[in-house]
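Problem 12. The chain below contains 130 residues. Write out its predicted structure in token notation.
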Amino acid sequence: MKSIVRLVVVMLALIPAMSFAQTAKQTWPEMKNFHRLMSGTFHPAEEGNFAPLKQKADSLLIAAKAWKASKIPDTYKPKETSETLDKLVEQLVVLQGAVKANAADEKLKVLISDAHDIFHKIVGECKKED
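Solution.
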């Protein structure tokens, strides 16, 4: 009898852990892919190295469009997230155009900084509160 009680107690104790593991598994691969590109272009630009940004402006836009087209996880506010992803794509269209037009590095820095701010709005303000 004691063994059955222990088993039940252990099983009940595991429920929150399994729930947390399930939540942790709910990743957004398109967001992770975009973040990888954003960090690889934004941080060098912050330090005055615009080569990665110039080389990957097209990839940033493609990744943002893929992110926008993906299913929004339940942990995010759908309307706000969708609207902010629209803004991110629009910002990256402008950035891509500026790169193609050989805009000054200072202009590119402003544009990538604005895109970075939009990204952080999505991963911060658009998430549902726990």
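Discussion. The chain has one domain: 28-124. Students who got a different answer should revisit the alignment rule from Section 12.3.
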